[in-house]
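Summary of Year 1 activities. Much of the first year was spent building the evaluation harness for sequence design. The harness presents a backbone, in tokenized form, and records the residue chosen at every position. We chose the following record to illustrate the format because it has been used consistently in internal testing since the harness was completed.
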């Protein structure tokens, strides 16, 4: 709790607006995408509301990206506090993970609620599937973030390499289109992107006519747990050495 309060004060308490920016940034992105694609197409690939369609793609992606990034930098962020024996790397990781999933859930709730109230969306909510999609996005962010928490300290160049790798992920995670509309062989390649499965499940939770049969929660869970196990094992073995870097 102390680490979470410190994170809240430093990440959101120093800038004007604080938590307001956490809502405005994705909202502005969704609004911009909606304006651009409304001028190009009559209807979105799914449903009748451009803002809702892009919100169902962007918000799980942002949850993964934010959680992964904050968890990956948790040891660097709390490096001085980790010198105290009562503070462990698990404390640093869990504090950032819990705070940021709560933040992103709040952001998603506000944006989805606004879209439903402000636009004609005709969505049918399946809360079980929606919660499952958000849970998988958070778990994937935790798993990859834990592995990167080790990699970023052990190999400083890994942080830049990961930043370069993440740039096209926004385009290849099916935020702008439906997976079924992709041609072969690109469809077969993108199936191995876990975010495609998460976003497919999210859209299934909002659009009752969309089955997303390709989405495999087990695949996302497997990728998340393998990355998390590898990260925790490496941190446990080399944690003390990393603090001296």
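For this record, the design step produced the sequence shown next.
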């Amino acid at each position: 709790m102390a680490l979470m309060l410190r994170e809240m004060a430093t990440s959101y308490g120093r800038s004007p607006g604080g938590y307001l920016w956490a809502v405005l940034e994705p909202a502005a992105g969704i609004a911009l995408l909606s304006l651009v694609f409304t001028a190009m197409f009559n209807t979105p690939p799914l449903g009748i509301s451009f803002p809702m369609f892009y919100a169902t793609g962007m918000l799980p992606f942002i949850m993964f990206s934010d959680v992964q990034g904050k968890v990956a930098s948790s040891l660097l962020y709390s490096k001085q506090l980790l010198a105290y024996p009562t503070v462990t790397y698990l404390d640093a990781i869990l504090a950032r993970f819990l705070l940021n999933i709560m933040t992103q859930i709040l952001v998603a709730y506000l944006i989805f609620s606004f879209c439903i109230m402000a636009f004609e969306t005709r969505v049918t909510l399946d809360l079980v599937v929606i919660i499952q999609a958000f849970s998988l996005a958070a778990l994937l962010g935790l798993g990859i973030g834990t592995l990167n928490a080790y990699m970023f300290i052990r190999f400083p160049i890994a942080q830049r390499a990961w930043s370069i790798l993440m740039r096209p992920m926004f385009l290849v995670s099916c935020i702008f289109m439906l997976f079924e509309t992709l041609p072969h062989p690109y469809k077969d390649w993108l199936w191995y992107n876990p975010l495609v499965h998460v976003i497919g499940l999210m859209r299934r939770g909002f659009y009752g006519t969309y089955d997303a049969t390709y989405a495999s929660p087990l695949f996302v869970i497997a990728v998340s747990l393998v990355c998390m196990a590898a990260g925790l094992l490496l941190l446990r073995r080399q944690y003390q050495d990393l603090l001296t870097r």
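The chain is about 70% helix and 0% strand. Quantitative recovery figures across the full test set are reported in Table 2.
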